[in-house]
Write a structure and sequence with these properties.
- It contains 9 helices and 5 strands; from the N terminus they run βαβααααββαααβα.
- By secondary structure, it is of the alpha/beta class.
- A 5-stranded parallel sheet has the order 2-3-1-4-5, sandwiched between helices.
- The chain is globular.
- Belongs to the CoaE family.
Amino acid sequence: MTTWIGLTGGIGSGKSQTAALFGELGVPLIDADTVNRTLTDTPNSPPLCAIRRRFGEQALDASGRMNRPHIRQTVFNDPQAKRDLEAILHPFIFTEIRSLKNHFTDFPYGIIEIAILAEQPVFRNLVERVLLVSADENVRIGRVMRRSGLTEAEVRAIIAAQAAESDRRSIADDIIDNNGSLKDLQETVFRQHQIYTRLYSPAH
C-alpha cells in the first residue's frame, strides 16, 4: 500500500525541482500539470469537448488541442471564465490522478505534485500528507525572472493571484525551506526521503 504525499508550493519555490529530486531517489511521481496538459493536448477528449462548448471554436487550435494563449488571456480577464474552466478540468484531473495512483502499489510512498492544493481543497482527498516547498518571496521572484524573462511586476502579479504562503503553511504537514543552493535542497530532500521511508515502509 503506497502512501501519497501532496507536494505543493508557489511559483518559484522550486517544487518541480524538489519533485525531480525525489524521483531520482526512486520515488513514484505524479504531476497534476502533466495530467492537465495530456488531457488538453488530446483532440476530442471529453474535457476538450466541454471546453469547446463553453468557450467556442477559438478555444482549440488547428490541431484540435487547447489554444493555451487564447484560454490564458480569456480566464485572466474574466474570473467567471476561470471558474468555469476549473469546473470542467478539475474533475477530469482528479479522476486521472486517482487512476494513476493504482499503478504504484509496491512503494512505501509516492509524490503527487499539485500546485493548487491550498486553493482547491478537493485535491487533498488524493493524498495522506502535504509537503510544502517554501522560499522567501524575493528569492522566488528572482528565480522566475531569470527563467522566464518576466518583469518583477509580472511575477508579483502571478504570486498575488495564488494562495498566500500562510494558507499553504496551514495545510502542510512538512515544510522544505528552499532558499539555498541546489546542494542544500538535495540534502534536505534526501533527509525527508529517509523520514518518509521509515514512516511508510511495510515493517511499520
